[in-house]
Design goal:
Elements (H helix, E strand, L loop, with lengths): L1 H8 L4 E3 L5 E5 L5 E5 L17 E2 L7 E3 L6 E3 L4 H9 L1 H22 L3 H21 L2 H12 L2 H6 L3 H8 L8 H12 L8 H10 L3 H23 L5 E4 L11 H4 L6 E5 L2 H11 L4 E5 L2 H5 L8 E6 L8 H13 L1 E12 L6 H7 L9 H6 L9 E8 L5 E8 L1
Parallel strand pairs: 7-8, 7-10, 8-9, 10-11
Antiparallel strand pairs: 1-2, 1-4, 2-3, 5-6, 11-13, 12-13
The structure holds S-adenosylmethionine.
The site of S-adenosylmethionine has 18 residues, from helix 8.
Length: 402
Amino acid sequence: MIENDLSDLTNRRFSVTNEPSSIRFFGPTGRAQMGQRAASGSADHYRALPTVTLHMATVDQSREDLPHTGVPCPRIFKRAWLDRAVSLPSERATHRTLLLDEAADRLQWAAGNRALLHQTLDEMIVALRDVRRLATADEWADWKAVCRSHPVTSLVHEDPFTRRAFEKPRGHAGDAELLDYIYGREEVWPAPPASPLGLQIFDYTTRSPAPEGVRARRAFVARMIDDVADERRFPDVLSIAAGHLREVLLSAAVKRRRVGRLVAMDADPLSMELVAREYGRFGVETEVASIRKLLTNQLDLGSFDLVYSTGLFDYLSMASSRRLVTIMFGMLKPSGCLVVANFLPGVRDVGYMEIFMDWNLIFRTRYEMVEMTMEIPQEAIRGIRLFAEENQNIIFLEVVKK
Ligand SMILES: C[S@@+](CC[C@H](N)C(=O)[O-])C[C@H]1O[C@@H](n2cnc3c(N)ncnc32)[C@H](O)[C@@H]1O
């Protein structure tokens, strides 16, 4: 079986492009060289497609139509390889290297062809998610180390989104600038400078399920602010770990000054400067402070009709989450409401995020969201609700005070 797989691979290091007789060869590091080769009579099996660059390796004979294009493509990651790459120690290194070489080659071949590039990333992301699912913690740590020293990493790091998360210029992966790459898609902000390949990968990664969830989360929060402003006159609102508070761009209530106090709190002074500069005109107040101050009762911001936090609990331990939820509850006025968001387990990008972005979220189940409320006295609670955003990647916990 293994020999069969390996013999498949002997044919895999060239591809045929739509340019007649133009063939790209790939070295062991996945670096492409252009070459001329007779289009017929070769011992290698290939056939040209009229409109797309086709990888002719017989890596996996199964084909799937690309969802958006109907273009038939060979699949790069064989299920059996994945299983072996994870579960058979004697074969693990070989199969993992084959997978990574294949991904690096495909990324370069696909540059310029959006459909193929997206398919390559799709397959790689799903494969890494599956590996993560199958692997023990030690095996996954080993995968991370090996992937990061493989040339595929420098290719995906041409994407500014992947690279910024990995490099963490503000000390953690999900800083507010990074989230602006995600929100920028809806706001039609220009993409950050990058190579042509980097821009294509950026186009893919900022559309993937986790960023889709983050955009849906922002829309949800904006609607929530509008709703509370419909129900009460000039409600006071607090956002904890507010980042750039981009939800205000979607909130009619904020723009029309139908909110009372709107306080944005974040540990990052640069983010708070931006919020003051851009949204001070809507009456937004800023507070540079770490949640540590809240957790140790060293910060009194007042009382609020709505207190919410998005993009923070995914990094907090359960003990800190419980404590912070209890403190947020204590900041509510009567009938006030707190909302916290967290990623649900199972997001498709998880393996890619952990390996190439070094972005490690704590995923939480419905049960764990409710567990966060367990230090709030039961008699003070009017109701608890849980709901997920439209993509089912992010869950919201809402607790209403009596
Ligand atoms: C993923 S961003 C979310 C920003 C915003 N809430 C959103 O959803 O777009 C996480 C934010 O948490 C802030 N943050 C991280 N650790 C913090 C802490 N200990 N105290 C306060 N803010 C913190 C970061 O500065 C960053 O702006």
